[in-house]
TrEMBL record:
Keywords per UniProt: Aminotransferase, Pyridoxal phosphate, Transferase
Name the UniProt record assigns to this protein: DegT/DnrJ/EryC1/StrS family aminotransferase
Species, as recorded: Plantactinospora siamensis
CDD domains, sorted: AHBA_syn
Source species, domain of life: Bacteria
Similarity comment text for this entry: Belongs to the DegT/DnrJ/EryC1 family.
UniProt cofactor(s): pyridoxal 5'-phosphate
Residue ranges that the Swiss-Prot or TrEMBL entry lists as coiled coil: none
Keyword set includes Transferase: yes
Alphabetized GO MF terms: transaminase activity
Amino acid sequence: MLPYGRQSITDADVEAVVEALRSDWLTTGPRVTRFEADLAAVAGAPCVAVSNGTAALHTAYAAAGVGPGDEVVTTPMTFVSTASTAVMLGARVRFADVESDTANLDPAAAADLVGPRTRAVTAVDYAGHPAEYDDLRKVTDSVGATLIADAAHAIGSTYRGRPVGTLADLTTFSFFPTKNLTTAEGGAVAAADPELLGRAARFRSLGMVRDRDSLREPDEGGWHQEVHEFGLNYRLPDLLCALGSAQLARLDHFKARRAALVERYNELLADVPGLRLPVRRDWVEPTRHLYPVRILAGRRREVYGRMRAAGIGVQVNYIPAYWHPAFADLGYRRGMCPVAEAFYAEQLSLPLFVDLSESDQDRVVATLRGILGD
């Protein structure tokens, strides 16, 4: 089965991990610091490495002070973690509809839902295409809320010449194997504000405070550490950070290769009836995590089944988040975001990964053409 996504691992990646294994530090060591610095150079803001993308979102919401009685406005066109981690902190999630072309959070729809209880507005850079952060900033400023970017798909992307990582108050990344680079499991939180970054760093390390100037009992002894606010163990070990730094060294190559594959898909599929291709706005330079097409005329389920039967691992990204039973049990109902639901009904992700060969891409295109031509 040709997968829709796959990691790219070289001997240099393997050697970096082996070197870490042979060192004195398997976790909380120098490779964590190095990876965070390497990541900051790409993100444009200081970063805290965490254990996965869901942990990054949970950490970002905690750093923003999200808690009981607060509301978080976000998109339904995302993996459930964007919303569920806010619920787990006691917040009420309000789902705003998406733009019909990018499937990103619609700033106008978000503006209609914010109010005095809004603690955060969280956008998702769907498929690697950044959301409209300048417009979303106006929305959050109007109510004093924190702007959060779920950039799980978008490391390496830019918006109006600015790197993802500088566009929101807090930005989260995911380094799952199908993403634009991988640490196996892993994620990160970026923030330019030292206070937000410090809260994120403490939350991912069980809330531990070790800096003498911050301790309430500084004279207890050199061993002393304190917990001022509860956190979790979301640390990313040196082994995986070593892999991350090795992968970051190839991010430009990853981005260029994905862009070339996207352009080739665009050319080969331009004239296929019953198919709508993804858009790219002029002021955005995306690092494409997904190549999401839309299958028209109600044929998405048929095409999905026939493509997979042909050995091509297409995927659907995503079920609207509030369709999950956990949200239904909280009273959320279908029909809340009609644009997102219409997008979901047609969306299909074609295989896209760095080592996808042109011959395999030709096979994807020929199979899809054949099905839609029936």
